[in-house]
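Fold this sequence, please.
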Amino acid sequence: MRIPFVTAGGLLAVILSGSAAAASLPDTMLQLPITFTSGERTSLAEYQGKKPVYLKFWASWCEPCQKEMPHFQYIQ
């Protein structure tokens, strides 16, 4: 019974530490300019406390990135 308790405690610690880190982004990170594929510009500050943000860095020449694009277009 000790192993499940340790595993649950470790999982809880990871979850709690992740939520605290997400709540306190550095100001420089919040001012990061973002340009959507539509050409619209914004910053991460616009989404703080509102919506989850999935930020993906990719390159057109990257083969694994090219394979992921249909999935991201679908969830858009």
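The first helix runs from residue 2 to 23. The CA atoms of residues 58 and 65 lie 6 Å apart.
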